[in-house]
Amino acid sequence: MGRTTIGIVLNGVTGRMGLRQHLLRSVLAIRQDGGLPLRDGSVLWPEPVLVGRSETKLRDIAERHGLTDWTTDLPAALARPDVQVYFDAQVTSARVKALQMAIDAGKHIYTEKPVAETLEQAIDLARLADAAGVKHGVVQDKLFLPGLRKLARLVEGGFFGKILSVRGEFGYWVFEGDWQAAQRPSWNYRAADGGGIVLDMFPHWHYVLEQLFGPVRAVTARAVTHIDRRWDEESAAYDATADDAAYGIFELDGGIVAQINSSWAVRVNRDELVEFQVDGTHGSAVAGLHHCRIQPRAATPKPVWDPDVPTTQRFREQWQEVPDNDTFPNGFRAQWEQFLRYVAADEPYVGDLWAGARGVQVAELGLQSSREGRRLEIPELDR
Ligand SMILES: NC(=O)c1ccc[n+]([C@@H]2O[C@H](COP(=O)([O-])OP(=O)(O)OC[C@H]3O[C@@H](n4cnc5c(N)ncnc54)[C@H](O)[C@@H]3O)[C@@H](O)[C@H]2O)c1
């Protein structure tokens, strides 16, 4: 069996995600391993075409990684018959226009989240892609984290009994940029540039909740800007107009209540940067990026509330580590492989532009809930 080449336009490779996770750890890592083996015994060979705004940056990335195919001319790249897939890791505000162009050019679409800044745009994109008959996928990397894979294993194995609630805690301190440089790009903190933690993180929480526990039916959220002045990449001060923390309650089928805090203004007192505690009638689990610990019903301690006596129990030590029992590749790469197999060999794939639109819907309704101070139900999307 031979080798088939698949041309992929990668737009936004000069950015954090585009370069590290998608170009280096996914597409080039697949090439370093000899390509992607398909079920029929053949190999799929991704051929990247780097696209961006800066010739200097693109040339530098290409040279450093032994690549020659790059351009600042997106329409020209999309007109090439040897390109089958368009991938987008640009800033969120630049995404819709580029995805529309790629769909019009008949390319399959793979994209970072959020797929758009508004639900209306996200639905238009999904409809456009369906009408054009192209395949489409949205990055859902958190599902591929070892900790969440183990959590999924617990759900599938019936460990929890009836699942009651999910408590998520995500965040860390993002430096303001004055006396220590900020570790995230400044556009994230400006509403006009597509920033904000709700638009950034609620789409992640949505696919995690939907795929692990079931459909999300209502949202109540409080989004705030705790730090309203920051310093950008050039050390210039700016007004931080986007929300940098969000306190959300999501209601799922079966009465499951998920409460997730997301914050770039919190100091970490956890084992990992994100942790989800799931409580069920037969057991509980705490899953992070890598680890997952459980406490079954039969091993549940019986604490008694007595504020006058210091507790002698070491509650965290009463949990048991879930073993790996598997090897977990980089999550972005694992999802790239799924998407490429979907495009090239029609293998099953979850997480299309409609899933992306549902993520944007929850973000949009979350922001509305915060503005209006009320709980909002989440209607089914009209295709
Ligand atoms: N899946 C995840 O876990 C995850 C994590 C972080 C970011 N993201 C998403 O990935 C996308 C990129 O985020 P990032 O952190 O890599 O951002 P970044 O600022 O590091 O990179 C942005 C990229 O977009 C390009 N760009 C195009 N038009 C631009 C414009 N008008 N202004 C500024 N840059 C422009 C830049 O050249 C650069 O290549 C965002 O949509 C973000 O929501 C996803």
Automatic annotation (TrEMBL):
Q: Where on the tree of life does the source sit, at the highest rank?
A: Bacteria
Can you give the residue ranges of the Gfo/Idh/MocA-like oxidoreductase N-terminal domain? 50-136
GO molecular-function annotation terms?
nucleotide binding
GFO/IDH/MocA-like oxidoreductase domain span: 149-285
Where does the sequence pass through the membrane? none
Q: Which SUPFAM superfamilies match?
A: Glyceraldehyde-3-phosphate dehydrogenase-like, C-terminal domain, NAD(P)-binding Rossmann-fold domains
Q: What is the name of the protein in this document?
A: Oxidoreductase
Taxonomic source organism: Paractinoplanes toevensis
Q: What broad taxonomic lineage does this protein's source fall under?
A: Bacteria, Bacillati, Actinomycetota, Actinomycetes, Micromonosporales
